[in-house]
Amino acid sequence: MTPIAAHKINLCSQGIALKALFSGYLTVVAIGYIMAMVQIQFTHGMADGKMGLSVDDIVYSYHGKRSGSVIETKLNGSMKLMTSEQNRLKIINWIHKGANEKAFYDTGIREIMNNSCIKCHNEATNLPIPDFTIFENVAARAKTDTGASFSSLARVSHIHLFGIAFIFMFVGLIFSLAAGVPKYLKATVIVIPYVFLVLDITSWWLTKLNPNFAWLTIIGGSMMGLSFIFMWVVSMYEMWVMPRIHSDDRDALQDE
Predict the structure, then answer these.
(1) What's the CA gap between 121 and 13, in Å, rounded?
(2) Which residues of 56-67 are buried (b: 16+ CB within 10 A; e: fewer)?
(3) What is the pLDDT of residue 68?
């Protein structure tokens, strides 16, 4: 009886169904990652009024722009295009004059916000943004901008820690079956996202207290992105390109 050869566990040698499953997941996650980068550009990348994520954007988002209010910072940054220049300056002028409630209604600020802000800033949208149908919420954001609140940091931190950790667990699991990467390099690349995810989240809190820590946010996010790209490219290569070049009888799980 001819002995049956043991099936080696690596990406190159898997069947078409498993490769399709892995590739579908990696493709969707990659698109999600790109969408996350676009979303960051619109939420944080415009904090200083300019396109592109910078250290100032990180500082204004988490530490705040202590020389002005939250509304003023947003109107000069990510919300700049949401209303006309005339209305924008009118709101900022109202803030500089003390953000008085009577003036809020008498000078037409309420009407401007109804036309430009309320479509998103209302309770019915269930978005994590203040409800501007209530004057007290507007007045609170007309005070000095101290950046993200500790409660919002806690909420976003736990969501990111759970969600991103799960994403990298499955990306890392697929990548762990790549036989063409030295074992210590493979282990390092798999661990990097978790290390820099913790660094990234920690940097938000540190930047809230001291703007000099803003660099850590960019470093943490960049390292997670680079490790994701490396794992994605290597995994796709070993599944679809390598089999066209040569077979692979190594066992990735045994570090062969």
Answers:
(1) 53
(2) bbbbbbbbbbee
(3) 79
Chain segment 200-248, per-residue pLDDT in tens: 999 999 999 999 999 999 999 999 999 999 999 999 999 999 999 988 8
Q: CA 163 → CA 10, 167, 228, 234, distances in Å?
A: 27, 6, 15, 23
Q: Where are the alpha helices (DSSP H) in the chain?
A: 16-43, 55-58, 70-75, 85-96, 101-106, 109-116, 135-141, 150-175, 183-209, 214-236, 242-245
Q: 69 has which bridge partners?
A: 144
Sequence-separated (6 or more) residues with CB below 8 Å from residue 30: 232
With a cut of 50, which residues of the chain have pLDDT below it? 1-4
pTM value > 0.85 = no
Q: What is the pLDDT of residue 7?
A: 61
Positive or negative, the CA dihedral 130, 134, 137, 141 is positive
Q: State how far the Cα of 40 lies from the Cα of 191, in Å rounded to an integer.
A: 24
- Segments making up each domain of the chain, as ranges: 16-44+148-254, 67-141
Task: Provide the pLDDT for residue 6.
Answer: 58
Mention every residue, 6+ apart, whose C-beta is less than 8 A from residue 49. Answer: 76, 77, 80
Read off the DSSP letter of residue 240.
I
pLDDT the model gives residue 253: 82
Q: In this structure, is the dihedral angle defined by the CA atoms of residues 223, 225, 230 and 235, taken in order, positive or negative? A: positive
- Name residue, tokens 């999600």: 32
Determine contact, residues 45/57, Cβ cutoff 8 Å: yes
